[in-house]
Design goal:
By secondary structure, the chain is an alpha+beta fold. The chain is globular.
């Protein structure tokens, strides 16, 4: 049984892309540690524990809440998918945080100039699409959900092991949320 040296050497193109990705992640983490003013939009998949990062959003919301004694377990994430790329964000939001690096599986996100962005059926050759920047805040859960709002689970990775990190509120006018639910529409960090 012969094992050639070629079978043990890694593919150079794969190794170079992995190293390039690692350098980008390290650079982003280094800038992130200098404060939100320096990095107004966070690449969520860079962090090894994105739940802790998202926990800061809940923590800030509870601290800034000036109501009476409430059950803080009712605080949930509230999300809005913006129509902007990470490069177009110049300053951090007053509440919550801007996140990018979230990928949508089972549909595509179409940005239009004059209309609000919408989810579309995915083409057979594209299995996923990257979402634009997502604004994540926290507040009391809202019970007035409409039939056009789909709460899309966002998982740490595509294997979907464990509970979702949070749910994206995706509003698609004139399309019932059952359509996306039956397709198994979900998001993951990449």
């Amino acid at each position: 049984q012969s094992t050639g040296a070629g079978s043990l050497t890694p593919n150079p193109s794969t190794t170079l892309s992995w190293v390039g990705d690692l350098v980008q992640r390290c650079s982003h983490l280094e800038r992130s540690l200098q404060g939100r003013e320096r990095v107004p939009c966070l690449w969520v998949s860079v962090f090894t524990d994105p739940e802790a990062l998202l926990g800061t959003v809940l923590h800030e919301a509870v601290q800034s809440f000036d109501g009476g004694a409430q059950n803080f377990e009712e605080f949930t994430f509230q999300t809005e998918i913006t129509n902007r790329d990470k490069d177009h964000i110049r300053e951090a939001p007053h509440e919550g945080m801007f996140l990018y690096g979230i990928y949508l599986y089972g549909a595509s996100w179409e940005r239009t100039i004059n209309e609000s962005p919408q989810m579309q059926d995915v083409s057979p050759k594209n299995r996923f699409s990257q979402l634009p920047v997502v604004h994540v805040t926290a507040g009391f859960s809202q019970s007035d959900r409409t039939h056009c709002l789909y709460r899309c689970p966002v998982y740490n990775d595509r294997s979907m092991d464990g509970p979702p990190l949070f749910f994206l509120d995706i509003f698609n006018e004139n399309v019932h949320y059952f359509k996306w639910s039956l397709r198994g529409l979900c998001c993951s960090l990449r």
